[in-house]
């Protein structure tokens, strides 16, 4: 058990690390395939004739015996809330109160959720339960700042997404509006960027940068088309005055239009989450943990500065554009297979 868990106060909200551990432990504990083993760990006698849903009360004993959480009964109300959230998001199946006799945490659950191949490769699908801070911390390692110099000598930068061990997705205007620095550090790795390794789409504002060094895409990273009114977050590296280092920021909002055609003919989508200069190329992520597009530009009305519209390239257009580049890689677009 980590020192963070040991010193956690029962009066404080559960931290993201502990919430994630508890959610993953619940998935393992309530999985019928582990019924006999988990009965033994939690001190319960298994039914030899049938598989029965395990009780949330027994889950507390499982957490303690597995050294996941000390004195878990002190956190029973928060654990109950987490399990109820998992059930309301169809991750656990609520099997009723049963006969556990515990008032604070009385229900029984099954974990029978079917997962796609992309979902099984990570835990991004837990985002609806674990919340916005989970999305930020889980996605952050795969979001990088791309730096360069403009013609007038000013430093410039945009945002990119590591979607493949050797490829970074961004906007075409990010790499075309500046001379991209040939040596950059991504994920703590010194990377070399040659001019010939920057691939730009001829029509869409999409670019892919190839780096010979090996990077780490976020496990379970998946793209999915935007849906009207869904909650989304922009994450990226906008310019922040008077700071010494790049700052990864996150802004909440919602999809305001699934599709709008730009004057250039591009198929875009609109959202209300703030995207500042420097966010271009960064992900717009839904509260379900999917990248629904990348930030492009703001469409602020000159006669109404308080009602900006932010535009992005939707994920289905990104998937098509990367395919058309013909560089032998694809973005992980979710097809529910």
Task: Describe the protein in words.
The protein is of the alpha+beta class and 337 residues long. 24% of the residues lie in helices and 26% in strands. It has helices at 3-6, 16-29, 35-42, 56-65, 76-88, 117-120, 127-130, 132-139, 172-176, 315-325, and strands spanning 54-55, 93-94, 108-110, 143-149, 155-164, 167-170, 179-180, 183-186, 189-192, 198-200, 207-210, 231-236, 249-261, 267-271, 283-286, 291-298, 310-314. A hairpin with a 5-residue loop joins β4 and β5. The chain is elongated, with a radius of gyration of 23 Å. It starts with a helix and ends in a 12-residue tail after the last helix. Residues 1-6 have low confidence and may be disordered.
Distance between the termini: 36 Å
Structural class: alpha+beta
| Average predicted confidence as pLDDT | 91
Please compute the radius of gyration using only Cα atoms. 23 Å
Order of helices and strands: HHHEHHEEHHHEEEHEEEEEEEEEEEH
Strands of the widest sheet, in order across it, are 7-4-5-6-11-10
Helix count? 10
The coarse silhouette is elongated
- Count of strand segments: 17
Please give the largest β-sheet: 6 strands, antiparallel
Helical percent range?
A: 10-25%
Low-confidence parts: 1-6
Percent in strands: 25-35%
């Amino acid at each position: 058990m980590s020192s963070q868990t040991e010193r956690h106060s029962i009066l404080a909200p559960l931290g993201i690390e502990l919430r994630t551990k508890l959610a993953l432990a619940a998935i393992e504990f309530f999985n019928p395939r582990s019924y006999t083993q988990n009965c033994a760990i939690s001190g319960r006698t298994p039914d030899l004739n049938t598989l029965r849903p395990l009780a949330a009360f027994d889950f507390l004993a499982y957490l303690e015996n597995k050294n996941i959480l000390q004195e878990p009964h002190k956190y029973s109300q928060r654990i109950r809330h987490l399990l109820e959230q998992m059930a309301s998001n169809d991750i656990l199946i609520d099997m009723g109160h049963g006969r556990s006799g515990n008032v604070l945490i009385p229900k029984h659950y099954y974990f029978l959720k079917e997962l796609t191949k992309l979902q099984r490769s990570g835990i991004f699908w837990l985002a609806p339960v674990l919340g916005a801070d989970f999305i930020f911390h889980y996605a952050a390692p795969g979001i990088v700042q791309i730096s360069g110099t403009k013609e007038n000598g000013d430093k410039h930068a945009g945002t990119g997404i590591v979607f493949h061990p050797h490829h970074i997705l961004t906007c075409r205007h990010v790499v075309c509006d500046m001379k991209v620095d040939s040596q950059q550090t991504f994920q703590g790795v010194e990377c070399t960027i040659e001019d010939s390794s920057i691939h730009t789409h001829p029509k869409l504002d999409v670019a892919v940068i190839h780096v010979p060094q090996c990077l780490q895409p976020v496990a379970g990273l998946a793209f999915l088309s935007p849906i009207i009114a869904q909650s989304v977050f922009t994450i990226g590296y906008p310019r922040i005055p008077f700071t010494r280092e790049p700052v990864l920021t996150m802004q909440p909002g919602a999809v305001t239009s699934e599709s709008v055609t730009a004057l250039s003919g591009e198929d875009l989508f609109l959202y209300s989450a703030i995207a500042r200069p420097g966010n271009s190329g960064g992900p717009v992520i839904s509260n379900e943990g999917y990248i629904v597009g990348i930030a492009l530009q703001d469409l602020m009305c000159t006669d109404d500065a308080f009602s900006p519209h932010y535009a992005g390239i939707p994920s289905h257009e990104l998937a098509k554009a990367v395919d058309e580049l013909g560089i032998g890689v694809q973005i992980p677009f979710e097809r529910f297979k």
